[in-house]
Design a protein that fits this description.
CATH topology: Immunoglobulin-like
Structural class: alpha+beta
CATH architecture: Sandwich
Order of helices and strands: HEHEEEEEHEEEE
Shape: globular
Strand content: 35-45%
Number of strands: 10
Helix content: 10-25%
Length: 143
């Protein structure tokens, strides 16, 4: 049986809710096996946005909700185009494209995230509408 374009379009529409509820693989097992990155030097305190992990530091490797608050200061707004999320491995793994679906205004809110078991360290960077940038290191332990 050959499917017409209309049949394929209908099938695609029916599958969208299933795809939307699928888990987000934040880190693959191969990425988790990479060597850890060397600790970076820290810089002085800036007046850039605050980056706060709202998710507990211990999570289930099978599925958890990743929530990170991005708080601009002094009436500025978060510039979503400046968001960068890196998995601190050698070489670093850019996770930005994997988390942008969860970027909603001043927070990252991803449900049903999976990672391999173990310790995972990320660097989250973002700037505000006045160009002030902040980077924050965040660690999670998946069990």
């Amino acid at each position: 049986m050959r499917l017409t374009f209309a049949h394929r379009a209908t099938l695609a529409c029916l599958m969208l809710p299933l795809l939307a509820s699928a888990q987000t693989v934040l880190i693959t097992p191969n990425e988790a096996k990479l060597p850890d990155a060397k600790p970076a030097t820290t810089r002085a305190i800036t007046r850039g946005p605050a980056i706060k992990l709202l998710t507990p530091q211990e999570v289930s490797a099978n599925s958890f909700n990743l929530k990170i608050a991005l708080e601009a200061r002094g009436g500025a707004k978060i510039d979503p185009h400046t968001l960068r999320v890196e998995y601190l491995k050698d070489p670093a793994v850019d996770l930005t494209n994997r988390v942008t679906a969860g970027l909603k205004g001043d927070a990252i809110d991803l449900s049903q995230v999976t990672v391999p078991q173990g310790q995972h360290t990320f660097k989250v960077s973002v700037a505000d509408s006045e160009g002030r940038q902040t980077s924050q290191t965040i660690s999670l332990t998946a069990k």
